[in-house]
Design brief:
The chain is an alpha/beta fold. The protein has a domain of 240 residues: TIM Barrel, CATH 3.20.20.210. 41% of the residues lie in helices and 14% in strands. An eight-stranded parallel sheet has the order 1-12-11-10-9-8-6-2. The protein has a four-stranded mixed sheet with strand order 17-19-20-21. A hairpin with a 2-residue loop joins strand 14 and strand 15. Helix 8 runs parallel beside helix 9, helix 15 crosses helix 22 and helix 22 runs parallel beside helix 23. Its cofactor is Zn(2+). It is an enzyme of class 2 (transferase). One of its GO terms (biological process) is methionine biosynthetic process.
């Protein structure tokens, strides 16, 4: 039984690529130095998968910045402002597109579907002259082959590439990006031909836009594209990979009828309904790459459950045509659990990072082939049982509080106009009051103080003194500028989610659990492993301290429950909205304690509201309903005179909703 990995993290187990990139950008190292680090990472990844027994190992999933930008380079679709005059695209042009330079801005960056990864958006129009300008895919295939590893080259599919693009500046917004398909397919044919000549036997096209709500014209584009590529693909096994959601019946029908395609990669973690489509109709003789190992979370796979799913699929597609795979690229998870030295053994046993997921995939493939590693499966079953029964996971008081929520807990008792009147009498603000969003710049000295306090190198008294001095500077500056509603600047905080997660129960934190957000930027998401509660006040001391320094209103600053949820690795043993309600109840406790401490204006930041929006429009209403309910839970118990502001920063725009989002 065969195994496959959709893609793998690029940064390295200790962010080696990040540091090499930033050194190169700062002109502290050469292009050759950067390329040497990159080659070392690629080699170690391929060897790791080969040693683990993976049959279908991907190549060209490494990137110096972003895989969509790599495709833009491959197609020579460089916007004119970068002054590229043809030829192979080098680092200067590539990184100028990604980061801008002294004279021109970077290309737009946006979210990769509903993940926390960002891609560089192609800028296209009718006048773009496409040309084969980056041989990266072929070069990396040859590089792996020279190391003795036969890989599956991965390309962003032509239809998804165009659908993820935007009209360039000066091009009509109504311009059909799919009309460019005939112009880019010749480039794809050149790449395919070179890969065939180099010895490739398989090729993977990532077409994730197949999981979106697509109209007939968009679906037809897939049919047209692969019919055009069919003759060039002859002699190759072709895998079309989709991920992040279920396929609609129309998209599934389009997929399985594509010309020249050998195999279909499907996300069976987030796309559980897709299994019903497979059961109804799966083309005879085709391969199913079954994505049963979650590529977007850090929980160990329930091997027994996955094996049962695979056995059911085997009966449908045939033993020789079933390949065990990840649900999507492992780019979206941390690299290697081995590097986590501070997680306790119990929680660690519940987790699997990218390196461990590779092992899980192969273990499932071997089990399906009758070579089950009984000890490995037994250890996994023990960890699964431990997680289900651990008292650290379940908090009965939290469960009861969340279950007891009723309609009145999702709104304040009086209407918006009455609250506004009461708040105005209390706060006496001008018609258009001024404030700032919240955090002030953090100096190297401030970060040093925080770092030394955490390492027990300075006393708590000295730490508190230093933070108070910083708050006083911020307060004095705002008063000098005549700001109406002040903030304390948040000098005590490291990250807007991590700061709160460290003070909430049910959260764990890693040392090296870094995940790429974009370019060299990595984040270390908290892990929500259990029921969430607030053991003690989190921000009251610092907000009260700041309020004592001024007669003007001082805002209490909190991160909202939806943002904490969406910027964490979330437990997968209960619905996300239940976890969100638990976080909302914890924030509600903090809001009420701030009010008791005399803080009459409280801001709740929801920067990540848009990021949790499901890919399907039909699911938006349910998500927004429980998201807004979570907002309202946080402040339904405060007095009319307390003003609660919600700051929503997202692709919806920037809005400041007052008084429990009365406008929603």
């Amino acid at each position: 039984m065969a195994s496959h990995i959709v893609g793998y993290p690029r940064m390295g187990p200790k962010r080696e690529l990040k540091f090499a990139l930033e050194s190169f950008w700062d002109k502290k190292s050469s292009a050759e130095d950067l390329q040497k680090v990159a080659a070392g990472l690629r080699s170690s990844i391929w060897k790791q998968m080969a040693d683990a027994g993976i049959k279908y190992i991907p190549s060209n999933t490494f990137s110096y910045y972003d895989q969509v930008l790599d495709t833009t380079a491959m197609l020579g679709a460089v916007p004119p402002r970068y002054g590229w005059n043809g030829g192979e695209i080098g680092f200067d042009t590539y990184f100028s597109m990604a980061r801008g330079n002294a004279s021109v801005p970077a290309m737009e960056m946006t979210k990769w579907f509903d993940t926390n990864y960002h891609f560089i958006v192609p800028e296209l129009g009718p006048d773009v002259r496409f040309s084969y300008a980056s041989h990266k895919a072929v070069d990396e295939y040859k590089e792996a082959k020279a190391l003795g590893v036969n890989t599956v080259p991965v390309l962003v599919g032509p239809v998804s590439y165009l659908m993820l693009s935007k009209p360039a500046k000066g091009v009509e917004k109504t311009f059909s990006l799919l009309s460019l398909l005939p112009k880019i397919l010749p480039i794809y044919k050149e790449v395919i031909s070179e890969l065939k000549a180099a010895g490739a036997s398989w090729i993977q096209f990532d077409e994730p836009t197949l999981v979106l709500d697509l109209d007939a014209h968009q679906l037809q584009a897939f049919t047209t594209a692969y019919a055009d590529l069919e003759s060039t693909l002859s002699g190759l096994n072709v895998l079309i990979e989709t991920y992040f959601a279920d396929l609609t019946s129309g998209a599934y029908k389009t997929l399985i009828e594509l010309k020249g395609v050998t195999a279909y990669g499907l996300d069976l973690v987030r796309g559980t309904k897709t299994i019903d489509l497979i059961k109804t109709n799966f083309p005879k003789g085709k391969f199913l790459f079954a994505g049963v190992v979650d590529g977007r979370n850090i929980w160990a796979n329930d091997l027994a459950s996955s094996l049962g799913t695979l056995q059911a699929l085997e009966a449908i597609v045939g033993k020789d045509n079933l390949v065990v795979s990840t649900s999507c690229s492992l780019l979206h998870t941390a690299v290697d659990l081995v590097n986590e030295t501070k997680l306790d053994d119990e929680i660690k046993s519940w987790l699997a990072f990218a390196a461990q997921k590779v092992v899980e995939v192969n273990a499932l493939a071997k089990a399906l082939a009758g070579q089950k590693d009984e000890a490995f499966f037994a250890s996994n079953a023990t960890a699964q049982a431990s997680r289900k029964s651990s008292p650290r996971v379940t908090n009965e008081a939290v469960q009861k509080a969340a279950a007891a929520l009723k309609g009145s807990d999702h709104r304040r008792a009086t209407n918006v106009s009455a609250r506004l009147d009461a708040q105005q009498k209390k706060l006496n603000l001008p018609i258009l009051p001024t404030t700032t969003i919240g955090s002030f710049p953090q100096t190297l000295e401030l970060r040093r103080v925080r770092r030394e306090f955490k390492a027990n190198k300075i006393s708590e008294d000295n730490y508190v003194k230093a933070i108070k001095e910083e708050i006083k500077k911020v307060v004095d500056l705002q008063e000098e500028l005549d700001i109406d509603v002040l903030v304390h600047g948040e000098p005590e905080r490291n990250d807007m989610v991590e700061y709160f997660g460290e003070q909430l129960s049910g959260f764990a934190f890693t040392v090296n659990g870094w995940v790429q957000s974009y370019g060299s930027r990595c984040v270390k998401p908290p892990i929500i492993y259990g029921d969430v509660s607030r053991p003690k006040p989190m921000t009251v001391f610092w907000s009260s301290t700041a309020q004592s320094m001024t007669s003007r209103p001082m805002k209490g600053m909190l991160t909202g429950p939806v943002t904490i949820l969406n910027w964490s690795f979330v437990r997968n043993d209960q619905p996300r909205f239940e976890t969100c309600y638990q976080i909302a109840l914890a924030i509600k406790d903090e809001v009420e304690d701030l009010e008791k401490a005399g803080i009459n204006v409280i801001q709740i930041d929801e920067a990540a509201l848009r990021e949790g929006l499901p890919l399907r429009k039909s699911e938006h209403a349910f998500y927004l309903k429980w998201a807004v309910h979570s907002f309202r839970i946080t402040n339904c118990g405060v007095k009319d005179t307390t003003q609660v502001l919600y700051l929503l920063l997202s692709t919806f725009g920037t809005f400041l909703y007052t008084n429990s989002l009365g406008s929603l």
